[in-house]
Amino acid sequence: MRVSVFLKVQLFLLVLLLGLAKPSAYGQQSFLEPADTLNKARFWTVTLGGAAIYTGFSIGLYNTWYKDFPRTNLRSFDDWGEWNQMDKAGHLFTAYIESNLSFGGALWTGMDRRSAMWTAAGVGMLLQTTVEVMDGFSAQWGWSWSDAAFNTAGVGLFVGQELLWEEQRILMKVSNRFPRYSEAPLPATNGEGQSNIKEWAEDIYGAGLAERFLKDYNGQTIWASVNIKSFLREKDNFFPGWLNIAFGYGVDNVFGAYGNSWQRDDGAGFRLDPIDYPRYRQYYISFDVDMSRLPIKNRFLRTLAGALNWIKIPSPTLEFNSLGEVKFHPFYW
Predict the structure, then answer these.
(1) Are 90 and 1 contacting, i.e. CB atoms less than 8 angstroms apart?
(2) Counting C-beta atoms within 10 Å of the first and last residue's C-beta, which end of the chain has fewer, N or C?
(3) What is this structure's pTM?
């Protein structure tokens, strides 16, 4: 999952959002308020702006990620077992978020809901498929059918809810607890040289907070956040409209696609003891807040809350993991 690229796109969208919070250029209607009917000026602004972002995204991704690797004919490869499937959860999350954010932009132009839904689904599939095609022509990777399946599932989750309920009752979200990695010396397997876990984690996951937030699998949790009130009968509907129950998936002690061994550019190899560092899965149940359902009157703050609604709210959390442990976290993110 090219999450660092997604982060840059998201930051761009937030900057654009701040720029939209100005006096309306469309008469009396608030600039952030969706148009009642198709507004051609808004439509072409979104269309041309989206095309420019997509073109820049594609060129930038190719030049920063694929350009220096050898290319081949389109091929596929099986990466299902990599990263304890944490990357697959990331594909599901990213495809859903791209579709949901695009839906809001399409509605803003005044497009009817059904047209906006299919437009958003197309955007989500286009962005994710672009990455898969680039992978497919790279000798280093290849087209991943499992990635494509989870991309489709993410878009399908958005479309299915829109068709069933005309609202998103189940949101995909992400959080990261930013684990601290050991700096204790780790000798090379041949005894020549040393490293440490922190050094390797920064090499594969990044060192900056923004990069680690969306790349560090050992701290990251992907959530399905379910709105309680929307599934209750009206007479039992005493829950706050913004209160959600979230179900999360994460991993720990994962420092490689298939195992915890690696090799530096200088040829020195390292390996973690699987007894001291067992790779395992984590399953979470927690509370969350659907920020799009908060009773916020200010249009700008309401729009901003919706744009940030892919971030899980810290709260008490129960963890079950594949080591057979059950843990309670009073405050987990």
Answers:
(1) yes
(2) C
(3) 0.91
